Amino acid sequence: MRAVIIAAMMCFSGVSAVASEIHAPAQVTAGTAITIRTSGSGDATFYLVGPASASKTKVQAGSNIPIDSDQLEDAGRYVAALCASDGCTAANFFVKPAAANKLSFLVHPSRVPVGTPQGITAVAIVHDSFRNIVLQPSPVTFSIMAKNEKSVSAARTSENGVAWVRLTSAKKGGPTRLGAAIGHADEIRVVQQVAADACNLRIKASRAKRGFLVETEPVHDCGGNPVPDGTVVSFTESDAAGKTTVDVPIKRGVAKIEMPIDGSAKITVASGVVTGNELEVTGGQ
Fold first, then answer.
1. How many domains does the chain have?
2. Which of 3, 28, 112, 171 has its CA 20 to 30 A from that of 69?
3. What is the CATH number of the domain that holds 132?
4. Is 0.70 topped by the overall pTM?
5. How far, CA to CA in Å, does 108 sit from each of 13, 193, 228?
């Protein structure tokens, strides 16, 4: 390709007065076949240089030169040139993107707490069939489809080939499908929606060999979604000696710890900014 471009540039710069002529349309839609008209006579070389390709063909000056559609799939500026015995002549034309019918769809984040206002950002990049970015404003429909919930959609018009929207996550945990559509083209991404902060924390205590076994009831958020394992729950013991706090991850839906207690003590529980009930226990022999 580089050799073809260099040869064409040398041809264009070597002659200032020409007899042959070449005529190309000013603008073409990507993927459309065209015919380039020429004048003159005799053997000639035709060059076509585009944004991502270049070609060289032996032709007859004065003939109509067909350009196949697959040679004009990349949007941008093209140079068509004819070099014959009487010199070289060139014409510029532009290939514009075809109609929008493909999308590149990006969603962030991949995990989001339920019920988070504008917690999901969805971005769509608009393309034609040949992956040219379509700069012309185009309508894009975004949607969020959660299991057992009514689908919610939002329409946006792309600017400079990009459309985006922020969506509120659904009320129930689990995988949720997000879509972007334009015309007959659509793309789907899946976002894992996890429980929000713990709600209504409750603990209970029972005697154990070395004190008391303190454990939570199954931990849920305010919407009833199970808080995922690994979420930290803090147990705090307050007695005559002071306060002791231990962080414990949730396992199989609950958090529990065995606490040695001698005498009277108060035990409280918290997860993040959420606090639970308080227990008063008495240990020792």
1. 3
2. 3
3. 2.60.40.10
4. yes
5. 52, 12, 20
Indicate the residue among 96, 129, 158 that finishes a domain.
Answer: 96
Q: Cα dihedral sign for 131, 110, 116, 174? A: positive
Model pLDDT for residues 165-184, shown as the tens digit of each residue: 998 888 888 889 999 999 88
DSSP string, 198-226: EES--EEEEEETTEEEEEEPPPEETTSPB
Half-sphere exposure of residue 181, counting CA atoms within 13 Å on the CB side? 13
Nearest to 82 by CA among 28, 2, 32, 23: 23
Summarised one tens digit per residue, pLDDT across range 215-272 is 999 999 988 889 989 999 999 999 888 899 999 999 999 999 999 888 899 999 999 8
Q: What is the DSSP string of 224-283?
A: SPBPPTT-EEEEEEEETTEEEEEEEE-BTTB-EEEE---EEEEEEEEETTEEEEEEEEEE
Sheet arrangement for strand 102-108: 102-108, 120-127, 162-167
CB atoms within 10 A of CB 148: 8
